[in-house]
Design a protein that fits this description.
Elements: H1 6-9, E1 12-15, H2 31-36, H3 38-44, E2 48-51, E3 55-56, E4 68-72, H4 79-91, E5 95-100, H5 110-117, E6 129-130, E7 151-154, E8 159-162, H6 177-193, E9 197-200, H7 250-262, E10 268-273, H8 278-286, E11 294-297, H9 311-324, E12 331-333, H10 342-346, H11 353-364, E13 370-374, H12 394-399, H13 444-447, H14 454-466, H15 469-473, E14 475-478, E15 486-493, E16 496-503, E17 509-510, E18 522-523
Parallel strand pairs: 1-2, 1-13, 2-5, 5-9, 9-10, 10-11, 12-13
Antiparallel strand pairs: 3-4, 6-8, 7-8, 14-15, 15-16, 17-18
The structure holds beta-D-glucopyranose.
């Protein structure tokens, strides 16, 4: 792991700290809880952690609205506990990347408070301010990802400000050089502490069109959704996002960020790309050594309805990326804190969900690109259903009853089958989200006892992968089979080839393929 490219062969594990382990008894997970679980993580066999934001925040978007980039929010601990966590992880051979939310801050950030206070203060141009149209309506047709227009009128400034997400998350103005420099300083603060890199939230949203041109509508042939969460048409999904995000000027900032990262050898950046066509951007952002190291998009995570895992669903994103670049290095995840858990999302027709969970682990860990597991993937957790009164996610509140929002994948990890709050918390209040009844049977305590559990399988598979350079770094080629239920690909490195064959159904499948003569067979693996 002293290799500067360690992140290419590594397996990452995402922690959503609110729901990992509560050690203070307030019903919310904390950094000390992660320290307690470092032996578990090390034993699991992952190499690096991405920790979702734990910075000071009023929590309108549960930490994705930062009011001080340099302080740990008291809910999660303090800066000393972060230092202890980093040391503990490093002592166990685990790297840590932290989640930098640079596109916007919280409205409670002192920069925004100053910016909104007048039109002539030092930070007046740090956010995106624009006059109302003569009829009082917003400056243009841009929409917020979460709901309604991307503009909110501020009475103090007498202008609208831009927010791609909640109105409590005003967008920083990346056209202002001072903003860019300041954000690099915030990143430097964490690099100086010794973090191993950053997950960059909404990395293609940083820059907007200076002329504030209207986004064009989608054509009839384009999917009227944002391709990630909500499948029914809604305003954000009806536009082609050519002016509010994914602007070419973004590369200028990414270049500066890369120069900073290069001063800290062995660190890396992972960009989150949310776009209808994320592949061109992913390649632009990650090819060569000038911008980001790697990026992921949400195409493996799209959809909320219970659905089916098809061959195309896996092949398409990989093929689209490969068609644009054979050298850029992608990252992939089937799950994160924003999407319906994959066992539920793809397992509609599957009876044996445990076997299906193992199948998903195997596919993710054998694709070309860095895999990111999300907490609970190793337990095969299904999506939890949340009562309206328990919903915390503002997006869920906005879209209820069509969609419960993102809380179903954010509920606390069940550590113990018995005992209060499944071993997540000993609070005498309620936990911030309930522990799902459907989750306790998947508790870590149980799975550690069962030799055929998803947890045990994940450990074994991760251990196997550690000694498979071809799986870690090889090229990938999909193999045509004459059977839609058989996903087949080949990974090759130097003179080694590994063939990966997966039966996506629960029935025995027969297929033929000349290239696979050695393995041509009747088989079932779930
Ligand atoms: C994060 C979300 C967050 C949004 C706004 C994302 O892509 O993953 O959880 O709500 O950015 O910061």
């Amino acid at each position: 792991m002293s290799d500067p490219d360690w992140w290419k062969s590594a397996v990452f594990y995402q922690i959503y700290p609110r729901s990992y382990m509560d050690t203070t008894g307030n019903g919310i997970g904390d950094l000390h809880g992660i320290i307690e679980k470092i032996p578990y993580l090390s034993n699991l066999g992952i190499d690096a952690l991405w920790i979702s934001p734990f910075f000071q925040s009023p929590m309108a978007d549960f930490g994705y609205d930062v009011s001080d980039y340099r302080s740990v929010d008291p809910l999660f601990g303090n800066n000393q506990i972060f230092d202890d966590l980093l040391k503990c992880a490093h002592d166990h051979g685990l790297k840590i990347i932290v989640d930098m939310v640079l596109s916007h801050t919280s409205e409670e950030h002192p920069w925004f408070k100053e910016s909104r206070s007048s039109g002539d203060n030092e930070k007046s141009d740090w956010y995106v301010w624009a006059d109302a149209k003569p009829d009082g309506s917003p400056p243009n047709n841009w929409q917020s990802v979460f709901e309604g227009p991307a503009w909110t009128f501020d009475t103090r400034r007498g202008k609208y400000y831009l927010h791609n997400f909640l109105k409590q998350q005003p967008d920083l103005n990346f056209h202002n050089e001072a903003v860019q420099q300041q954000l690099l300083e915030e990143c430097k603060f964490w690099l100086d502490k010794g973090v191993d890199g950053f997950r960059l939230d909404t990395a293609n949203f940083y820059t907007h069109d200076k002329e504030l041109r209207d986004n064009p509508p989608k054509t009839k042939d384009e999917t009227p959704s944002n391709g990630t969460q909500f499948e029914k048409p809604y305003p954000y999904g009806m536009q082609r996002h050519v002016f509010d995000k994914s602007r070419p000027e973004n590369l200028n900032f990414l270049k500066k960020l890369r120069s900073l990262m290069d001063q800290y050898p062995g660190t890396m950046t992972l960009g989150e790309i949310g776009d209808d066509d994320p592949y061109k951007l992913s390649v632009e952002y990650t090819e060569g050594n000038q911008h980001l190291h790697t990026a992921y998009n949400t195409h493996f995570m799209a959809g909320t309805d219970e659905g089916v895992l098809t061959k195309e669903l896996i092949e398409d994103p990989i093929n689209k990326f490969q068609a644009l670049s054979k050298t850029a290095w992608p990252s992939w995840a089937f799950a994160n804190h924003d999407v319906v858990r994959p066992v539920t999302r793809w397992g509609k027709n599957i009876k044996d969900k445990q076997a299906f969970s193992k199948l998903l682990i195997q596919i993710l860990l054998t694709l070309r690109g860095t895999p990111f597991l999300y907490q609970g993937d190793e337990l095969g957790l299904p999506e939890a259903s949340i009562e309206f009164d328990d919903i915390q996610d503002p997006w869920g509140k906005a879209l209820w009853p069509e969609w419960q929002g993102r809380d179903g994948c954010r509920t606390p990890i069940p550590w113990q089958k018995n005992g209060p709050y499944a071993g997540f918390s000993n609070t005498n209040q309620l936990t911030w989200l309930p522990i799902s009844d459907t989750h306790t049977k998947h508790a870590v305590s149980e799975q550690e006892k069962e030799s055929d559990s998803v947890l045990q399988f994940t450990k074994d598979f991760l251990l196997w992968r550690k000694n498979q350079p071809t799986i870690q770094l090889g090229d990938i080629t999909f193999i045509e089979t004459n059977n839609d239920n058989v996903l087949a690909y080949q990974r090759s490195l130097n003179d080694q080839t590994v063939q990966c064959l997966f039966n996506l159904s629960e029935d025995v499948q027969v297929f033929e393929d000349k290239k696979l003569s050695a393995l041509e067979a009747t088989f079932t693996n779930i």
